[in-house]
Amino acid sequence: MPKPLEAVNDFVVKFSNVNGSGSASANALFAKSILRMGVPASSRNIFPSNIQGLPTWFEVRVSEKGHLGRRGGVDLMVAMNPETWDEDVAEIEPGGYLFYDATKPLPASKFRNDISIIGAPLTAICNREYADPRQRQLFKNILYLGALSALLDMDVAAIETLIGEQFRGKDALIRPNVKALHLGRDWALAHAECPIGLRLRRANAVGERIFITGNEAAALGCVYGGATVAGWYPITPSSSFAEAFAAYCRRYRRDPVSKQHRYAVIQAEDELAAIGIVIGAAWNGARAFTATSGPGVSLMQEFLGLAYFAEIPAVIFDIQRGSPSTGMPTRTQQADILSCAHASHGDTKHVLLFPQDPNEAFLFAADALDLADRLQTPVFVMMDLDIGMNEWLIPPLSWDPRRRYDRGKVLSFADLEKGVEFGRYLDVDGDGIPYRTYPGTHPTRGAYFTRGTTKDRYGRYTEEGSAYVDNVQRLLHKFETAKGRAPRPIRQKAKEPTRLGAIYFGSTAPAMTEALEALEERGIRLDTLRVRAFPFHDDVLDFIAAHDKVFVVEQNRDAQLRTLLIVEGEIDPKKLVPILHYDGTPITARFIENAIAERLSVVPLAPLRKALP
Amino acid sequence: MTYIAKPLFHHPQLPTNALGFTHRDYEGRVSTLCAGCGHDSISAAIIQACFELSLPPHKIAKLSGIGCSSKTPAYFLDASHGFNSVHGRMPSVLTGANLANRDLIYLGVSGDGDSASIGLGQFAHCLRRGVNMVYIVENNGVYGLTKGQFSATADKGSKSKRGAVNTDSPIDLVGLALELGASFVARSFSGDKAQLVPLIKAALLHKGAAFLDVISPCVAFNNHPGSTKSFDYVRAHNEAVNRLDFIAGREELTADYAPGTLEVVVQHDGSVLRLRKLAADYDPQDRLSALNYLRRQQAAGEIVTGLLFVDPDAGDLHDFLDTVETPLNALGEEELCPGPEILAQFNAAHR
Q: Could you tell me what percent of chain A has a pLDDT over 70?
């Protein structure tokens, strides 16, 4: 047997559970108590499209260094689901640990001899202590949490505090939970060697950071960014977005005197109506958004073309999931890049923003509302299930109190009264962005007829080819303007000059950072660029030009961002090497590290020979 | 003659309304529909209704989907903002627009293809939400712009111009509107302006979801023998349950009515609907009996017209959502942004 793994504040624990068994809150308590010990951690819920009965996993990454992406591999498996036993046991790193419910004996063939095994009679303890079947089920989860607290040398007081906070208002539940916690802990202290090789030690590495999902953070960004109308249709993994927006609005958006609502949320009959509501509201001067996922974006296609061509600000949050079709609704991907960049029929191009975590999701939500108004066009915020539904440890959210909403080019009553020339599709300022008016602004001036079909600069109906070309060329010019207004990419240099680069975006960021560190240790140095928006800023193309080979790391099968780069930048496809992860689980640092290292050993490059020992 | 630009000048003594506007101020561009199209009569009725009610044109937003009927908002109310959206989706766009600014009057114009086929879902849902609007379907039972296919309101057994017989059961939008909770439901005929104009006026003043089904024969594709949406057929089978005579509350009742033949309904805004009863037992405030009556007459081959149902005290979507009085599009950072202190508390709650 290999030496048991030894690590302090740096390991991966995975919980394998049955959906609907009440494990989620015990697992979340586990992750949060690590944070309360001052040790950074992230958690990822890998769950089925099901309410009860199917397998579900919860993976916790502990990293005092602050690597909060998925690492890959499992150091301690808490195996609570017989159905997935074999695959769960197989996933454990050599030298790792298996914790399981040993009430029912299992044959030796079900185990491995290169891992440490801790079997606790959880069901037996529960059956002895509790009569009610539901309690037996729920407290079993708290029991294993208690056992882990001893095995990993956790601060049990931190867990007790959290239990107190969680059940505040339902105080009768606190005592039984604390009791269950200690039942598990006492069993471990009495029957197992505590602590095991993996352990936690109080640190001071969490600081001011907060623990939150991207859907909640972005929904709050919509509140701060001044969205007043939301149209949505329930779809995993975006539903919690609209629900969070409604909840925050109920709290923060009431008239202090009348208590009436300064917002309107409509759960529409489908995604078509959801985007229709957004377009109608935005046309009429309210900030409006929808949150959806890939299938919803597919249903919105016709409307998105209208919004592009009629130049209506609309903000769409795409919480991407496994696609196409119904796909894997509870799994993550970055596979809607092309369908959003070119959403709808005809010649269309849309602005996309790629937040890397909930903190940027908050910021980009407000930025997207500004950008949509400024550019008068749909803006997509490309999140994914990993960012949207998992809790991330991120810097606290901040808001500049001097910030003003950029409502873009809107003519007021006074402007119209002064006799300003108004042509709805007239490029007055040379940036491709025309002026608009809200309905009802002026009794005799500024009214226009919005239509998707052909029109001239003054919004008058025409089917003239030249007027059409004039209009769509201006739209291209407007898209150029967008480059300078969307969030700029972030470039990072390797420690030493290199001809190798890597481009990544969105939720890949934390795993990428960790992979770069590991590659560096192997002597592979990469400059990196994190794309934060489409259309691509000139920096993106400069970066590609400055390197011989650029890896493009994505979570989809077809290298969709790479396709956009090749097309928009007229780049030789051979120069952009795709690194693709698309099994529906969040990308891991080890995957990126190995994939890049492998590509480099297959394709030897001149600079690489220098870089490698 | 649609290539001739419409002249703006008019007779100097053209009558003006309370706002000082003439009838011409409510007009739009020259229609590009076929000569004799029923839809143009409806546009004219809308113009007359808005003029007579002295509505400020810029406070009306006109929205439509796709189709012949949906083109018509370009042909009336030129001083209003208009939105020709996508096929069957006007209701959602109108709902969003209404949420953004509750102070405007929303006029949705659609057709039977737009509302009963591709847009049936949106038709249903905007009515059940009680969006404050006038929703007019210009109903001719046929697709005009794509040249004569049956729509979902075509009666079973009716014949197309090419001789094909429709074998599908029709969708009755009035029946659906009653089922779905529209608070003002009427049917009229584009060839009966005297009936149509007061109904549009009453609908414009109604608070809540007002639906008007206007049979509007298609002279190009559905005005032949065998059609149940032709001028001749509708004239022969039109059974009006009542006549809406006056709607301005301030005017004195001057006409003489036989006892029991007049019903007075006071709407939310104080406007008074004076209904001359034609069908003796018809009660336009009873949703269930309206539905029954409609079904019975329909089975007998009659087209029931008039003000079929009104709930004068209905609320609208803004009431249900309890939104503030100020239009949402007029709120700024002050009212909308919770500010950094709240954010600090929020952060603290997530540690």
A: 98
* A470 and A530 share one domain: no
A564-591 burial code (b ≥16 CB/10 A, e <16): bbbeebebeeebbbbbbbbebbbbbbbb
State the total domains in chain A. 4
Q: Check B347 against A208: CB less than 8 A apart.
A: yes
Domain ranges for chain B: 23-323
A407 within domain boundaries? no
User: How high is the mean pLDDT of chain A?
Assistant: 95
Q: Is B54 on the interface with A (CB under 8 A)?
A: no
| Contact criterion met (CB < 8 Å) for B85 and A306 | yes
Tens of pLDDT along A354-378?
Answer: 999 999 999 999 999 999 999 999 9
From the candidates B30, B92, B333, which should be mutated to test the interface with A, based on the most A CB atoms within 10 A?
Answer: B92
Within a domain: residue A257?
yes
Q: Which range of residues forms the domain containing residue A255?
A: 212-394
Residue A595, domain CATH: 3.40.50.920
Residue A315, pLDDT above cutoff 70: yes
Residue A603 burial (CB count, 10 A):
11
Identify the H or E element spanning A210. strand A210-213
Contact B83 A288 (CB under 8 A): no
Q: How far is CA A597 from CA A224, A560, A600, B267, in A?
A: 43, 22, 5, 76
**Chain B residues with CB-CB distance to A396 below 8 A:** 347
ipTM associated with this complex:
0.96
Tell me the three state secondary structure of residue B243. strand
A348 and A227 fall within a common domain: yes
Q: Which of B58, B84, B100 has its CB closest to that of A284? A: B100
Task: Give the one of B121, B333, B343 whose C-beta lies nearest to A398's C-beta.
Answer: B343
- Chain A nearest CA to B170, separation (Å): 23
How do residues B303-323 score in pLDDT, each as one tens digit? 999 999 999 999 999 999 999
Assign domain B23-323 to its CATH architecture: 3-Layer(aba) Sandwich (3.40)
